[in-house]
Design goal:
CATH class of the domain at 75-200 and 262-417: Mainly Alpha
CATH architecture of the domain at 75-200 and 262-417: Orthogonal Bundle
Strand order of the largest sheet: 1-4
Helix content: over 70%
Low-confidence stretches: 1-15
Order of helices and strands: HHHHHHHEHEHHEHHHHEHHH
Distance between the termini: 53 Å
Structural class: mainly alpha
Radius of gyration: 25 Å
Number of helices: 17
């Protein structure tokens, strides 16, 4: 039986390296166990993050690569990176509206209207491309501002206001295009080059990958410093390093694949810059915090003296501006504008991309990167269906199934968060 003196003896020290610090292997294992514990805690609380959509994307790529070896070829992945831009930009705008717990049904019509305005001004009336492009984008901004102000002042649900806008803007587009119905764009012009120009120098793609990884590290490190200074929970340096390293591997692998075809597409570069800039706006500015606050409850936001009308108007204006940009990229892809521009499944795909990517239908949760992941899933399915000669009807079935699963996961996640007092 141990005596009192024995119980006070110090325990043997843990194995250490030559410097007296814990053994590197033990430190790595301890860190991994800590990350696993945090991950399990988040899962139990319903904070799934981007995990479900990343797994879906991986499954989609594996299945189509097994069906056709050309799916993950440099050519197909390069085409995929350009194909996601038009609808992806529209989906980014949808994320802003979803953060309020609302829907914008007019984005398809606004995208077609902007493309029509550009085509008529430039092709039919000889207005310089750069000026016609600016007017087209501002047309979308004006349409969204009008809808946003109407929504904020009348307090009619946004989907009703934008449903009226869908019909109105589509009618104006048809009127602008006139009886001819189709206008072909200059294949060597500014707008056409948005989706046809590539940076053929390998350094461009690798530079973008390096800059992206570096910015992620700097932003994460600064966030850690701020949180640590005020005593808030923060990531460890090791965690930041691992996160940055994983992103760097993915980014440089993507750059390598793009360089094996034609290089970095201009469309993809513009898309990523816009997504990153709007992500900063949402998560690093006072306006962005107000958007999230409104998603948590409009009445609570009003009582907190937030300018609800201004924020709601601005959100619909952002959504419409992104729709106009997306419409121009879609027109660039086919170098023409017709009466079918902005119609079909464009609206549904844009909303589905935002939701599948992880933006919540209940408001208050989502980032612009959710739209990127969501449109990657949708466009990957479309691309896979095309190269495997699968009937187009099946594409809608699969996309619908993925969308339904995303909504169910969103609902279950919210219930779990409410049960843990986090929603």
């Amino acid at each position: 039986m141990r005596n009192a003196a024995d119980s006070t003896q110090p325990r043997p020290a843990a194995p250490t390296g030559r410097t007296g610090r814990p053994h590197p292997g033990k430190a790595v294992i301890s860190a991994m166990q800590g990350w696993a514990a945090v991950f399990r805690l988040k899962l139990s609380a319903g904070e799934l993050g981007s995990l479900p959509v990343v797994l879906v994307l991986a499954v989609v790529w594996i299945i189509f690569q097994a069906l056709n070896d050309n799916f993950l070829s440099p050519r197909n992945l390069s085409n995929l990176s350009v194909d996601i831009v038009g609808t992806g930009l529209i989906a980014v705008g949808i994320v802003f509206v979803l953060l309020l717990g609302e829907l914008d049904l007019s984005v398809g019509s606004i995208s077609g209207l902007a493309a029509a305005v550009f085509a008529v001004l430039n092709v039919n009336n000889g207005v310089p491309e750069w000026l016609a492009l600016i007017v087209a984008v501002l047309t979308g901004t004006a349409a969204g501002t009008l809808q946003g102000f109407s929504f904020a002042k009348t307090r009619v649900p946004a989907f009703v206001v934008t449903l009226a806008g869908l019909l109105t803007w589509n009618g104006i587009m048809l009127s602008i295009l006139g009886t001819s119905g189709t206008i072909n764009l200059d294949e060597d012009g500014l707008v056409a080059k948005l989706t046809s120009y590539y940076f053929t120098n390998d350094a461009a793609a690798y530079a973008l990958a390096g800059v992206a990884a570096g910015l992620v590290f700097l932003v994460s490190y600064q966030d850690r410093r701020r949180r640590r200074a005020v005593g808030m929970p923060h990531r460890s340096l090791r965690g930041i390093g691992v996160r940055t390293g994983v992103l760097a591997v993915i980014a440089f692998a993507a750059a390598h694949m793009l360089n094996r075809f034609q290089g970095l597409p201009l469309a993809l570069l513009i898309f990523l810059v816009i997504v990153a800039a709007l992500d900063v706006v949402l998560r690093r500015t006072h306006y962005g915090r107000q958007v999230y606050a409104l998603g948590g409850g409009v009445e609570a936001a009003r009582r907190a003296s937030l300018s609800v009308t201004r924020v709601q108007t601005a959100v619909l204006a952002v959504s419409a501006t992104m729709a106009a940009l997306g419409g121009l990229f879609l027109a660039s892809r086919i170098t023409s504008v017709s009466q079918n521009s902005g119609s079909g499944v464009l609206l549904l795909n844009a909303i589905a991309a935002a939701v599948i990517g992880g933006a919540s239908l209940f408001g208050g949760r989502g980032t612009t990167w959710n739209a990127v992941l969501g449109i990657l899933v949708i466009q990957s399915i479309a691309s896979g269906m095309s190269i495997t000669d699968t009937p187009a009807a099946l594409q809608f079935v699969i996309t619908g199934g993925v969308l339904f699963a995303a909504v169910v996961i969103d609902s279950l996640s919210r219930r779990s968060q409410e049960a843990h007092g986090r929603a």
